[in-house]
Amino acid sequence: MTKCFSLTATRNFCLRSSFSTSGLRSTITDLGDGTIIHCWVPKTRKQTRPDLLLLHGFGANAMWQWGPDIIPRFVHHFNVYVPDLVFFGDSFTTRSDRSESFQAECVYRVMEMNSVTKGVRVVGLSYGGFVAYSLAAQFKEFVERVVICCAGVCLEEKDIADGLFVVKDLDEAADMLLPQTVEKMKDLMRVTFVKPPVKTPNCILVDFIDEMNRENLQEKRELVHALAKDRKLSELPKIPQPTLIIWGEQDKVFPVELGYRLKRHLGDNADLVVLKDTGHAYIVEKTKEFYKHLKSFLLPQIPPIPSSTATTNQQDPHHLHSNGTITITT
User: Fold this and answer.
1) CA torsion through residues 155, 158, 160, 164, sign
2) Which H or E element spans position 120?
3) N or C: which terminal CB in the chain sees fewer CB atoms within 10 Å?
4) How far is CA 186 from CA 17, 66, 182, 204, 253, in A?
5) Where is the segment annotated Disordered (predicted)?
């Protein structure tokens, strides 16, 4: 029986309206190599404002992860660009490359076609953090400063076998991140939230899976596998841009150890903020606090966050003697 109403599709429509009323317009860019990228761009780019690129993680399209709590705040300070990464939303490729470096190249080419080629501030959430890091490594003049949000770019393939994650292999990781049943969807919510939404009706979860998780399923599974395959910390470049790392203390998708590992890898060039009492979904659970840290770092002329945070230059919980800044919120 064909569904006559979809709450997910309705919310998607409302999000499109919200992005549009926030001063963004939907664009489709054909990169000419079998790749199509959808991106929200400013209706009017203002030369007096810095450019901000927001890269989403796994899950629904970019709108679901960056709006409506984040976008309306940012558009007053930045020229905001929000692409759908390849195989999410309306972006697609016929090419076989599944690496984050390919995703980064696609994003850069779209920005280039929008006449934005340097001095960009980039925020990458989870999977988008892998892409943001690759952008900063590949296109150094393009990225001015970067925020890596709960993205395990410092993971190694052996970490899975060593038991660092809640999954035992990449197939299980793909099953978790791309749930196809109500039970799997609830499992994902328990893993990503410290306080999962209470009693979400099964019909809503089924509707979301049908609308957001069925399309390009095999390709998305391949993206998961590409993240960890042959990955070694010793081969990860050290990006030169000022970097802010933000992590949820109780993250079960990418444990906070990976945040400290990335801080050690980048040294004084990076600051680490650990948000207490939240996990992988802190953009939902700690929206206001998340935004305050982003604004303080992305607009450094803004006064720093008030003393609701404790800053240390001593040892982190993993016995790192750091010369940089580690902030653990209280």
Assistant:
1) negative
2) strand 120-125
3) N
4) 29, 22, 6, 12, 14
5) 308-330
What is the number of other CB atoms lying within 10 angstroms of the CB of residue 44? 7
Q: What is the pTM of this model?
A: 0.90
Name 164's Cβ contacts closer than 8 Å, sequence gap at least 6: 155, 255, 257, 258
Cα–Cα separations (whole angstroms), residue 150 to 255, 265, 290, 316: 8, 15, 12, 17
Which residues does the chain have with pLDDT short of 70?
Answer: 1-4, 301-324, 330
The contacts of residue 121 (CB under 8 Å, 6+ apart) are 50, 51, 52, 53, 78, 143, 144, 145, 146, 147, 298
The Cα 315–Cα 228 span in angstroms is: 29
pLDDT computed for residue 198 by the predictor: 76
Query: Minimal CA–CA distance to 81: which of 36, 34, 117?
Result: 117
Judged by DSSP in three states, 240 sits in coil
Strands 143-149 and 120-125: parallel
Instruction: Give the helix/strand (H/E) hosting 257.
Output: helix 257-266
